[in-house]
């Protein structure tokens, strides 16, 4: 199982969460990546944690003011990126181009989508992973694995149909070790989480609890 | 006169340009800011140059994956930001909210617009500066001060009508000291430029040439 | 006072509302326009009511699949259009271009905005009218004239500063004759309303009530 | 083979093209649909031709000013719709929701995409048809079947892998009967075309030439 911690635009201390993630990852052997604001990529990467961008733009070098260039993210230390998060939905053509941009600089990629149909669609584009996150569960604390386990198994089936080398991650409402185990049993190979760690009083304890069952 | 160098998503060495800008600014006394990719804000700020964001998002702390949070830009060292660049046009309501976000963290602000009418519109929102950049001249090497000087004088008049404390900058096609002087004579108090410095073989020499007449 | 009834994407009978508006307008002498879905412009215009588009695109004739071309709206019978409604916010540059498109075919124009600052901004672009609609009041049934009368007077002042030939309309929460009178007393020259008429059991009675005080 | 004529925002007489399409369809037995501006749906449908929307919005009845509600398009006479045309690209989640909107009112659906990968992605969502239109060929007069026949065969294969009940149409550069035959030989079951008919001096002759080989 892989864990990606999305810091969104939360008022958390990105270096504190990154340091906790690095330590828990080293201690547990579970790969944990942290995805901060683009402006914080460098300080997060300096902790030694696996660092992901929250998004990269569907552009190449050129006149693209205000974009998030994959090359710049990689130079700042990112080794992976989410794409099409429900808070940063992209046009289909732009998912395709942003994926190519990420691959151009060797970023690991995880494309998010709402439901099994869309998971099948994006898995066919060939990312490293896809993440199913029903929008209605994001930020609720109710894990998709409990609220609607069929969404996870259907997503796993849809991704496999499209391209069986694509891993399926599970997002929305994940916060405990039990949630993570439930996701794993449904076929997920990773989890995306956010507030459960980023807003925790003690991010390290939250991460330790999360990976304890593994 | 103030100079803002927009590095866009150019394949330039942002630290090299930043260092050149810092040195030329110190030697000449002309304020020169450099606006890199968000992921490069920290390394640019570390050179000591005045550092600007290319854009900040119309959001506060919260669930805004893939945004450019003003707080994060400021923490990375930005002290100013462009808004509504022609390559990153915003909805009017979002210009208003992004301006409030920038002001919330004390960023100096410069809102770009296409023509004098739009300059009047955005000046009324109360930024520190507005920049008139006719889209058809961006990247051409033909300065607006030559191609159509009335645009600059009309923009200055429109901004003054709306709010006479707002400075007017001039963008699009500026690259030489002569261009800068011409802009100044038309009433501009600053210039935005990009490829003329960022793509120059010798960015320092380009900046020295630019500020020489001042 | 002018009344614009926005049918949005409501499940109302657009011809029934249009017929009621036509009749009440003729009986009362108060100008009442109805703004249906683009696909219903023709059937609404055939009733003889003043017909408005809800939006026109910032384009000219050409390769713009899925746009709402001002020419097509006019050919279908529209004589006016809203622009930048809070449910269809536009980039500032696109407000400017869409306004030009509407003027190109002689449509009366009303640009919506959230607050007095934005009202000042769009009034400067020179439309026939602007409409202030605080987003937090839309659909609440609480008229802006009661919830926050200063917004209306400030919007009137801001528009006058920018261009004193631009009329100010008042939207959000207007449904009764009392609301309309209150808006008028604050300086508004028109009202935008939607659910109060479009979702009324008897749209004609709702409109008669609305214009009764005039 | 099915023919869909996209009138975009062209300055053509939509009723003249519709009448020609109706007549040629009746004479030849080839199904020909015409997709006008939303504001022209009603007048086009009144000719008796098969009428398509160029786009429908990913919304249901409600507060969606300026949208193109599927219900309104159907009430105006549309029996089909394009989605995600390269001039009206949608977010993936919105393609999914707009498709559901179109199906809710019984519209035939054709989702456009740039390349075989994206065709596979959208075919998996279950529309009636998908259309491959390489953006670089749109409006060139060079048919994709000549410029790059592999794109068509790869698109047909990708769609079949995803859902073998989905028809593949071929767009971009189609204008003659020869182009249509070439598309058919590569596995396409329909064509999208635009300027070749809409801008023809004699649309009826252009359509007759198009369907002659069938």
Automatic annotation (TrEMBL), chains A, B, C, D:
Name this polypeptide is given: Triosephosphate isomerase
Catalyzed reaction equations: D-glyceraldehyde 3-phosphate = dihydroxyacetone phosphate
Coiled-coil intervals: none
BP terms from Gene Ontology: gluconeogenesis; glycolytic process
InterPro entries named in the record: Aldolase_TIM, TIM_sf, Triosephosphate_isomerase, Triosephosphate_isomerase_arc, Triosephosphate_isomerase_AS
Keywords tagged on the record: Cytoplasm, Gluconeogenesis, Glycolysis, Isomerase
Pfam family, any one: TIM
Residues that hold substrate according to the record: 6-8, 138, 173, 194-195
Keyword Ribonucleoprotein: no
Assembly and binders: Homotetramer; dimer of dimers.
GO cellular component, one term: cytoplasm
Family the entry assigns: Belongs to the triosephosphate isomerase family.
Gene giving rise to this polypeptide: tpiA
Gene3D superfamilies associated with the record: Aldolase class I
Residues annotated as the enzyme's active site: 85, 133
Subcellular localization, as worded in the UniProt entry: Cytoplasm
Gene Ontology MF terms in the entry: triose-phosphate isomerase activity
